[in-house]
Amino acid sequence: MRKMFGLLIVFAVVATPALAQKITIDYAHDFDFSQVKSFTYFDTKDSNIGNDLTDSRLKNAILTELREGGLAQVAADGDIYVTYHVTTQDNTVFNTTSYGYGGYGPGWGGYGRYGYGGYGMGYGGGMGGSTTTSSTYTDGTLILDAYEPSEKKMVWRGTGTVTLKQKPEKVANQIDKILTKMGNKWDKILKNKGK
Q1: N or C: which end of the chain has fewer CB within 10 A?
Q2: How do the pLDDT tens digits run along the chain, 195 residues long?
Q3: Whole-number Å distance between alpha carbons of 119 and 108
Q4: What CA–CA distance (Å, rounded) separates 195 from 187?
Q5: What stretches of 22-171 adopt beta strand conformation (E)?
Q6: Coil, helix or strand for 191?
Q7: Residue 69 CB contacts under 8 Å (≥ 6 apart), including other chains
């Protein structure tokens, strides 16, 4: 009896980056945030991200969030001093697609009354292969720092990380969402609810 079969297998592993925003904060638990009524923004060398348009969008979004949160912006001597930093990291994802197919094989288990047997032949071993492609995406992290001015001691840090979109207007939307979430966490601290 002859048996013949064919098999095609397609196997794909696709690693996709996480698109959700990750927001974390840390703050000085001994600092009285209820006394904070005003802020002064200042730049550092780390605030310069090499793109004036993005820097301007970031700065405006930060200032707007702080003002909408009830703090008055003053040119100097605010209750806290605020600045930001940005870091980026390029990541590579490898996607592999594997394929293969088996063979077929006739075979005889034996013949004859004198015990000739075990004869068989097979075709197979199959063929297969795989293809790997790579793609790159960028994770961006926005770090917002607040300092107590007299001792220049950090009292609050908010960090938001997200996989950056390609279009500038979508990145601006991502920044707004990060700052809104940070603002909500700030409000919880003011109401003594912690993180």
Answers
A1: N
A2: 333 222 222 222 333 444 568 999 999 999 999 889 999 999 887 776 667 888 888 899 999 999 988 999 999 999 999 999 988 888 888 888 877 665 555 555 555 555 555 444 445 555 677 888 888 878 889 999 999 999 889 999 999 999 888 888 888 888 889 989 998 888 888 776 554
A3: 6
A4: 10
A5: 22-27, 38-41, 72-73, 80-101, 105-106, 127-148, 153-163
A6: coil
A7: 183, 186, 187
Q: Give kind and range of the element (H or E) at residue 184.
A: helix 168-190
6: left (phi over 0), alpha (psi -120 to 50) or beta: beta
Contact indicator for 58, 84 with CB cutoff of 8 Å? yes
Q: In the structure encoding, which two tokens stand for residue 158, read together? A: 């908010």
